[in-house]
Amino acid sequence: MATLLCPPPTLPALDSALDVQSFQESRELYNTLPDDGDQPPVDEKHIQNLAALFVKHNAQDVLGAHLIHRHFTIPEDIVLLGTNFEGPKGRWAKITQIKDIDRDAVHGHIYAFRKHGLCAYEYQDGPLPDLSIVNNGFLRDFIDYLVANDLTPLIGLQVLSDCGEQSMGELILIDGTVMLQAADIKNCEPFRVTGWRFMASPYGPRACQANEAHQKMNSGNHKVFNAGKPHPKLENVDDLKAALAEAGVV
Question: Nearest CA to 188 among 168, 211, 171, 209?
Answer without folding.
Answer: 171
